[in-house]
């Protein structure tokens, strides 16, 4: 578990640094589609590193699926908590982060074609557009936290199956 906590802290700080880098180069990190999200790579790399180190250095080459999932969960919990708290802090200390997101997300919503709006539902579209100005730092932090767990869950299952090793029975 200490490996998961350590790597979660490192990945959390690195993930937040990547968020800041994207923001300061003019690409708001909350406006990327989920399939272009850097968390896919970051979580994959760190979960593999964590599970391999746990299996090879602390479990004598044995790793059960349940151990891998618990270790991945602890890693994800620490990563998501650290990054979400730092997102909340940046929204508090750099209000332009939040106001820029609201402005860009509003502009992005207004460019959606009428045919797509009809498919999504006009009421849902208008509700989202009207609620956007009330978004705060906590909303962004909670959104990031939740999406991190969704992404990590699927990555963790795949990596846990690949890296698991059980003792050989004679």
Tell me what you see in this structure.
It is a single chain. This protein has 170 residues and is an all-alpha fold. It has one domain. The chain contains seven helices and no strands. It has helices spanning 2-24, 39-58, 65-93, 95-110, 114-120, 122-131, 137-163. It is elongated and about 65 Å long. The protein starts with a helix and ends in a 7-residue tail after the last helix.
Task: Set down the secondary structure blueprint.
Blueprint (H helix, E strand, L loop, with lengths): L1 H23 L14 H20 L6 H29 L1 H16 L3 H7 L1 H10 L5 H27 L7
In short:
It is built from seven helices and no strands. With 170 residues, the protein is mainly α.
Spatial extent as radius of gyration: 19 Å
- H and E string: HHHHHHH
Average pLDDT confidence is 92
Number of strand segments: 0
Which stretches are poorly predicted, pLDDT < 50 over at least 5 residues? none
Largest sheet: none
Measured as a percent range, the helix fraction is: over 70%
Strand content: under 5%
The CA-CA distance between the termini, in Å, is 30 Å
Tell me the overall shape: elongated
Count of individual domains: 1
User: Which structural class is indicated by helix and strand composition?
Assistant: mainly alpha
* Annotation field: number of helices: 7
Protein traits:
single chain, 170 residues, mainly alpha, 7 helices, elongated
């Amino acid at each position: 578990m200490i490996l998961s906590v350590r790597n979660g802290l490192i990945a959390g700080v690195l993930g937040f640094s990547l968020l800041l880098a994207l923001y300061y180069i003019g690409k708001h990190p909350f406006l990327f589609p989920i399939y272009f999200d850097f968390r896919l790579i970051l979580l994959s790399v760190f979960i593999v590193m964590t599970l391999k180190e746990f299996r090879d250095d602390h479990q004598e080459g044995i790793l059960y699926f349940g151990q891998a999932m618990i270790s991945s969960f602890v890693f994800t919990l620490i990563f998501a908590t650290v990054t979400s708290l730092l997102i909340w802090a940046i929204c508090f200390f750099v209000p332009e982060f939040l106001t820029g997101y609201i402005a860009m997300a509003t502009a992005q919503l207004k460019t959606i074609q009428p045919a797509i709006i009809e498919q999504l539902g006009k009421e849902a579209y208008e509700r989202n557009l009207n609620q956007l100005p009330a978004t705060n730092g906590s909303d962004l932090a909670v959104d990031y936290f939740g999406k991190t767990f969704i992404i990590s869950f699927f990555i963790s299952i795949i990596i846990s199956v690949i890296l698991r090793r059980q003792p050989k029975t004679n």
